[in-house]
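> Could you send the L-cystine uptake protein TcyP prediction when you get a chance?

Sure thing. Input:
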Amino acid sequence: MTTVYTVVILALFVLILFGFYRMQKKHVKFSNRVFIALGVGVVYGVIIQLLFHRESAVTTQSIDWINIVGNGYVSLLQMLIMPLIFVSIVGAFTKLESNKNLGKISFTVLATLLITTAVSAFIGIMSVFLFNLQGAEFTKGAAETARIADLASRQEMVQDLTVPQQIVSFIPTNIFADLSGARATSTIAVVIFSTFVGMAYLGVKRKSPEEAEFFAKLIQSLYKIVMRIVTLVLRLTPYGIVALMTKVLATSNFAALLNLGKFVLASYVALGLVFIMHMLVLVGVKVNPFVYLKKVMPVLSFAFTSRSSAGALPMNIETQRKALGVDETTANFAGSFGISIGQNGCAGVYPAMLAAIVAPTVGIDVFSPIYILTIIAVVTISSFGVAGVGGGATFASLIVLGSLGLPVAIVGLVISVEPLIDMARTAVNVNDSMLAGVVTSRRIGELDDEVLNDTEATVTSSL
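Output:
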């Protein structure tokens, strides 16, 4: 009967996909299709779990096939990350009329990402205090024990890495290896390499304008090709989201959610407050938060379901340019920097919360203002180079806890609810990246308010 039930589940899933295909043919608005996909995925996933349980053979086999659509979609987007970073940043240099804004753009993007990360770390610590989270409350099961053993081996990779050594690790030694994503810091390495290529172009432009013009045309051609691929892949978003959401709800451990409910609630409260902080920053730069939210929800929905900041990069950049009115140069810098620097959720809130929870277990007064500032400083510095893919938060936590001399077991003890928290963390990461773009574009006077306030100007108009 297992095979029969699996076939029925997959047949229904194919019908769901066909329904979204019909909606696309009838030109149903893309954002509406995304939200419908989110809801359908939730309902279908809950039904599968209620009928067959998350660990049953039926659920396992069904989700394995459904993953072809969900994970396949994420893989297609991840395929574009390195090429998109390269052509986006180099292309931004070729479109600069002058380099007078280059320093201001880079500084403002980085400052926004890092300052919001510091504030996010503070919010995470305050959330721990508010909910009175204590390390002794977390229990250890078989899965947690295995996870802790794995973390112990992973910590050996970073425990002897000083902050200066960590900074050096960002510099690419083999750009071809980094273009393949071989290292945890490959994304920031590609950003650095692309920036050097762009600066070299500006130098060639002054001395050999003809060669520079040829190179600029080549890069613009590559950019258009890559962005065309982006458009083709983004059209698959509703299908990907319904598959990803079905998997999340069908395989979630709701018993663990109840056991660690206070930690999950504290995490979501902290992430919610960070999101509110983002909205206040928008108000400060004279951007209507409600208009902004309406335009970015498709991107945040994908980030929430896929748990991949890097995978959201194509839609992130396109949304900044076409929906929010951010100039192309800033959008490319903010999007590319945001997947490897200053991620508010994974590299801000989460490691700060874990540090504040575990510190009292080793006799540290976590209420000390000096120690709170120490956590915030370490979290902010360590937020450089955190990969915008699954596992980035774990990597950031290992660095932070190791730098503070704290045990890493806490990271393994929350493994059961990690995916549920990671969904919101990723959405916050992506939102901060777009926030940096809007703030920077406003500062240099390039934010197009006409596009920003035009309800018809969306990234989804051609999808």
